[in-house]
Prior knowledge:
Blueprint: H1 3-16, E1 23-26, H2 37-44, E2 50-54, E3 56-57, E4 63-64, H3 70-81, E5 84-85, E6 91-97, E7 100-107, E8 118-119, H4 123-127, E9 129-132, E10 135-138, H5 141-151, H6 171-184, H7 193-199, E11 203-204, E12 207-208, H8 210-216, E13 229-234, E14 249-255, H9 259-273, E15 276-280, E16 287-291, H10 295-308, E17 320-324, E18 328-334, H11 356-364, H12 374-384, E19 391-394, E20 398-404, H13 417-425, H14 432-439, H15 444-457, E21 461-463, E22 476-478
Parallel strand pairs: 1-2, 13-17
Antiparallel strand pairs: 2-7, 3-4, 5-8, 6-7, 9-10, 11-12, 13-14, 15-16, 17-18, 18-20, 19-20, 21-22
Amino acid sequence: MTEQELKDLTQVITLQKTETQTIELKTAHVDCPKRLYDTLSAFSNQDGGGILIFGISEQDSYAIVGVYDPHDLQKKVNEQCKQMVPVVRPLFTIAAVGDAMIVSAEIPGLDISQRPCYYGGTGKVRGSYIRVGDSDELMSDYEIYSYEAFRRKYEDDIRVNENSDITVLDQDAFTRYIERIKSQYPKLSKLPDEDIYRHLHLVNQGKLTLVCTLLFSVYPQMFYPQYTVNAMVVFGNERGMTNEEGARFLDNKRIEGTIPDMLDQSLTFLKKNMKVKTIIDKDSGKRMDKPEYPVIALREAVLNALIHRDYSIHTQGMPIEVIMYSNRIEIKNPGGLYGRVSVDELGRTQPDARNPVLARALEFLEITENRYSGIPTIRMEMKKAGLQEPEFKNSRSEFLVTFRNDKKEESLDTSTPQDIRILDFCRNPRTREEITSFLGYSTVHWAMKNYIYPLLKDGRLNMTLPDTPKSKHQRYISS
């Protein structure tokens, strides 16, 4: 960042009086803090990294106290960065704020293939951290494993089911699948069946693989009791609420069977418990039933959960959850997004595949297209139904999709207190400079980037001269 940007950021911090997901404050008034490893690890292990700012005292109500020696501080911070695995390369900026010197160290986020970053002195298990809010927390074994699994390309969907053999298969379903493969790939059909099974990652030395167990065994939960869908309808809008008799669920079902079975049963459960609005066409007089949620969107979400959940031994005890509240449906699967894809990129870029053999097998079964069209279909169906955009929430340990049943125009107001102040101020047309001064900042660029542009994007703020956005006569007015 530039010197001016550091000054502006310092001003924001002293006004807001808080650290954040990407900002960590250190005093450094007397000497360099002795242990920065936890924060260096946490920032390196998150997309976008983070910024360490030295010279602001959290204990003294976020007063600017300055650093003891900017040159020596940078040297000592860099020494700690060299003890990280892999080595962290900070970018330093120094700024004078009043009589004090402030130093920032920007910590870049590592590519996922290089994570986790950890302190070499304690090792990977005790030295790997993640950022949660404004604190650094030790990574769980599973969070460490999830990075290892991507880097080393672990294939959990084809791990061997040591307790199985070919006798537990639904022979008819398995034979139909193999015959379908042979018809599509004539050259493959010339091989002995045992070689075909091995080539398709279905059987390994007489043992079924996980994907074969989940698709073609008579009862997969005999081997994997928690590879299920736990579906429930709860009272109200919060889990744990009860009715007058103390019952917690209106409906509750443990859904078992193969993946196709669980998909079908999950949709049956959802349709059974959804409200249905009856509409009479005023021209034809025909009756039409309109479900509370678009069934196609729900099918895609459940199918995505079944295909893309984590099937490693670390999540073997965790079922998929489908929870119906009065105002929403939540579909939650173990394991966050796999690889480099982010929530913002879902449906817009080709993701890395956690379970490629399973996805391909379901394509052969014509259950999925395997063309990364699920998320766009979900969004399109919700839009056609006049409902809010689906919400996607990702963490290292789980992925959550939320469908809300209220109309788009009834969506919740997510304005921050600062947004409300700006919108109220801009009831009369205002210049960039007027808004910047009103917010108490000195740099127009900072105010535009962090406040005005987001409000313009959301349509809550409008330009008076939209055809000439950079005009010196430009004003901004609330919608």
